[in-house]
Amino acid sequence: MASNMRIGGLASGMDIDQIVKDLMKVERMPLDKLKQKKQILEWQRDDYRSMNALLQDLDNYIFNNLTLQSSMLKKKVTSSNDSVVSATASASAANVATNIEVQQIATSAIWLSDENTRVDKNNFNVEKDYILTFNVTNGDGSSKQATITIKQGTTLDGVISQLNNDPNLGISAFYDEQTGRISIMKKDTGEKASIVLEDQDTADFFAQKLGFIGAVAGAELTGKTDGKDAVFTINGLPTSRSSNTFTINGVTYTLKSTGSATITTSTDTDAMFNVIKGFVDKYNEVISKINAELKEERYRNYPPLTDEQKEAMTEKQIELWEEKARSGMLRGDSILSSGLSKMRMDLYTS
Q1: What is the per-residue pLDDT across 40-64, written as a single tens digit (0 to 9) for each?
Q2: Which of 36, 188, 255, 319 has the fewest CB neighbours in a 10 Å radius?
Q3: Strands across the sheet with 245-248, in order?
Q4: What is the spatial distance between Cα 239 and Cα 106, in angstroms, rounded to a whole number?
Q5: Rounded CA gap, 224 and 112, in Å?
Q6: 96, 236: one domain
Q7: What is the pLDDT, as a whole number, of residue 1?
Q8: What are the residues whose beta carbons fall under 8 Å from the beta carbon of 320, sequence distance 6 or more?
Q9: Any residues with CB less than 8 A from the CB of 100 and at least 6 apart, and which?
């Protein structure tokens, strides 16, 4: 009976299997050496990338903190009464003291549905599609058109959501279940704010569905409380703004309540010191890491492991071996060394 069983070297006394393995190992040596060279090049590439990222971080820090005027010439702003006025300043702002007296805070326009007409959320019904069109004027006097399509069967919550999410309408609306009324408030402030219902369908929807009794096409939505402009006196000059936040000569003021306050702007020397200190620390870190890379010990007796060698080792042994094998990939590297010298020269001569 034929058999596939083979006993190596039974007749000759030689271990045929081992001889074949050794011959194959010799044949694989050129390929293993190529793989080892490839691995060394990949480790060098990774170390170059690490150094490049380090230098890029330094370059970004210089650009963001030393090149830009806004970073080097930061301003510190203090208010004698922060509950009345707070402020921030750009780098171009002058170092001055400004007195502000606030007579009136800017407010938003508000529209309330009729107090005698309760909107029933549970029985709310949109029996057909409506196309609502508005002529919207913001508190600063700028205007735009808004169009919203309300589909048949839309719930009251759905209608409120659509009104709130339209960027051209610019409102914040909500339904109060306790009173059955709807409140609409402009998101911006100012006395010029208005919402005009452009056509009959829009007027009918607001009157019949949302409780704004008396809504008329081509007219302002009913139930309005006018918005107000901020009124204040700055260094003796009476003036007004549609918003409580505004900028004058590089200083951005935020009015919070009526009263008076003195705003003082000065150069933030602490911030300037921290920027320079941060650069010095960053630069020293880069120099230290590059020098460490250039001087890192190279263990040439620890080449990259072949697949066969890894199979004969534990994970810990592989880790310790590759730690030595990866060491010193850029030791004495001419590209890194010349780059470091040029960076130092540029810094000292700039």
Answers
A1: 899 989 999 999 999 999 989 888 8
A2: 319
A3: 85-89, 251-255, 245-248
A4: 13
A5: 7
A6: yes
A7: 44
A8: none
A9: 84, 85, 232, 233, 234, 253, 255, 260, 261, 262, 263
Helix (H, G, I), strand (E, B) or coil at 148: strand
3-state secondary structure of 180: coil
Percent of the chain, pLDDT > 90? 62
Amino acid of residue 24? M
Residue 318 pLDDT greater than 80, yes or no? yes
Half-sphere exposure (Cβ direction) of 293: Cα atoms closer than 13 Å: 24
Domain at 220, CATH number: 2.60.40
Q: Does residue 350 register a pLDDT over 70? A: no
Coil, helix or strand at residue 238 = strand
Which residue segment(s) compose the domain that 318 sits in? 30-68+272-349
| pLDDT for 2 | 46
At CA 306, angle to CA 304 and CA 311, rounded to 5? 120
| pLDDT tens digits for range 94-121 | 999 999 999 999 999 999 999 999 999 9
Q: Are 249 and 93 in contact (CB under 8 A)?
A: yes
With contact defined as beta carbons under 8 Å apart, do 255 and 84 qualify? yes
Taking residue 217's Cβ as centre, other Cβ atoms within 10 Å add up to 14
Q: Is residue 120 located within the same domain as residue 221?
A: yes
Residue 3 has pLDDT above 60, yes or no: no
Question: Which ranges in the chain belong to alpha helices (H)?
Answer: 16-61, 69-72, 156-165, 200-208, 269-295, 307-311, 315-326, 334-349
Q: How far apart are CA 75 and CA 271, in angstroms?
A: 9
Q: Cα(170)–Cα(138) distance, rounded to whole angstroms?
A: 8
CA 309, 313, 319, 320 dihedral sign is negative
Instruction: Provide the whole-model pTM.
Output: 0.66
275 neighbors 71 (Cβ within 8 angstroms): yes
